[in-house]
Amino acid sequence: MISTDGPETVPRARPAATRSRCRPRRVRLRDGRDVTLREIRETDESEILEAFERLSDESRYSRFLQHKKRIDPAALERGLHPRAGLDFVLVATTPAEDGIDIVGAAQYLPSQSTDARACEFAVTVAEDWRRNGLATALISRLVRRARRDGYETIEGRVLASNLPMLALAHDMRFDVEPATGEAGTLLVRRALAAGTAPARRRYA
Ligand SMILES: CC(C)(COP(=O)(O)OP(=O)(O)OC[C@H]1O[C@@H](n2cnc3c(N)ncnc32)[C@H](O)[C@@H]1OP(=O)(O)O)[C@@H](O)C(=O)NCCC(=O)NCCS
User: Fold this and answer.
1) What is the Cα–Cα distance from 172 to 24, expressed in whole angstroms?
2) Which end of the chain, N or C, is more open, meaning fewer C-beta atoms within 10 Å of its C-beta?
3) Which of 101, 185, 114, 104 has the alpha carbon at shortest distance from 142?
4) Atom 43 (ligand 1) nearest CA
């Protein structure tokens, strides 16, 4: 991971949702390691900050589309307190000496685009946890949750040079198009019509 620092949001007047908690779920990755996928908790703050510190500059740039030395405190606060029915933040944890490490995270927020029924997602996986299906598992759950929250589209901004994320988006049947007004950035987008399942659910 990782950070919950996501796209800036413009809160929409979406009907309040009665939201069920997403139950923690153990997932075995391709290399045999297990992670627990669960919703973020307020108490995850220090682990989120540590996970961000472990990320390389390149990973941070890919995730935030800009160079970042630290997580914006307001964005961190927002990420730790998702608004029911609007935002969702999922973390992947693994046991560590101090309790847990966060090795992956994915989130969505209402999209900044003009489409009020769209949410914008982002995902990060710790460098030594990649190519094991973790991002696929995280995004699969985001997709299901976003559908339940009433969104009709899930989209994400990706650097045109971010080949791993573009390959992943292709695998998961996202469409890819240029992001309006953002040179070097692409928009990956997928409709959330009922019954549309992610293309590959090998690890989820
Ligand atoms: C992009 C990212 C999230 C992928 O995470 P991951 O857990 O390694 O992804 P997965 O293991 O689920 O990969 C699924 C598929 O995506 C493609 N893929 C992922 N990483 C790839 C890479 N480095 N090269 C080529 N294809 C890749 C592959 O098709 C892969 O399937 P395969 O392993 O069976 O070939 C991770 O590299 C990352 O955190 N990058 C930095 C942050 C970032 O770019 N976030 C995206 C901005 S929203």
Assistant:
1) 23
2) C
3) 104
4) 63
Of 49, 53, 31, 57, the C-alpha closest to 91 is: 49
Q: How many A from CA of 53 to the centre of ligand 1? A: 20
Structure tokens at 54: 């472990």
Structure-block tokens of residue 43: 């108490």
Tokens of 152: 């009709």
Reported as type and span, the H/E element at residue 140 is helix 134-148
Peptide bond into 100 cis (omega under 30): no
Considering the entire predicted model, what is its pTM? 0.89
- pLDDT, one tens digit per residue, over 11-41 is 443 444 455 668 999 999 999 999 999 999 9
Residue 92 CA to ligand 1 center (angstroms) comes to 15
Q: Which two tokens stand for residue 85?
A: 């029915």
Cα–Cα distance for residue pair 177/150, rounded to 1 Å:
23
Q: Judge residue 2's burial from the number of C-beta atoms within 10 Å of its C-beta, 0-12 exposed, 13-18 middle, 19 or more buried.
A: buried
Ligand 1 centroid to 169 CA: how many Å? 9
Question: Considering all CA atoms of the chain, what is the largest pairwise distance in Å, rounded to the nearest integer?
Answer: 45
